[in-house]
Amino acid sequence: MNRTVAVYPGSFDPVHHGHLDVIDRCRPLFGEVVVAVLANEEKQPCFSVEERLEMLRELLADRPGCRVESFSGLLVDFMDRLGARCVVRGLRAVSDFEYEFQMALMNRRLNPRVETVFMMPHEDYSYLSSRLVKEVFRLGGDLTGLVPQPVLERLGRRLGAGAAAAPAPRRAAEPAR
Ligand code: PNS
Q1: Using one digit for the tens of pLDDT, what is the confidence trace for 118-131?
Q2: CATH number for the domain harbouring residue 13
């Protein structure tokens, strides 16, 4: 039986299909995947930690082998408390690499038992980020297929009607202006 616990940390503000894709890729590889929401962000999040936990728990309810927790302080300390040694991070593009590499090496320096595993989300999500999700939603863009429905609904309640009230998305052939 695989008892390896993987910790997938992040802001998840909000969770999108790229995150869920990484989680689904991890599930067959690890005994347990702990999705860890950072609680002490300096930047002003769109959703509170409780809201982010709720969304993740709702979306992961039918995915056995996953647990959702919040943490504050150093990730390596949280991992120690869990008895976990493996951090999972999604690597979407080369542009992610430098920041992720620094973080992985700093975490290993802080705790040499901690190793970071990088997972590539499906290429359909390689340009997707929570920041862009919020921006596109605010501006009325179509996020179908990129963000789960319950998250879209919460974005609507938090930020206004957004895509729900937007006209039909442009066809690909129509040039953006
Ligand atoms: O989704 P994000 O915002 O890219 O996630 C970043 C996160 C939460 C993984 C990172 O900021 C983190 O681990 N913060 C906890 C504090 C910490 O341990 N800092 C040192 C990491 S090198």
Answers
A1: 999 999 999 999 99
A2: 3.40.50.620
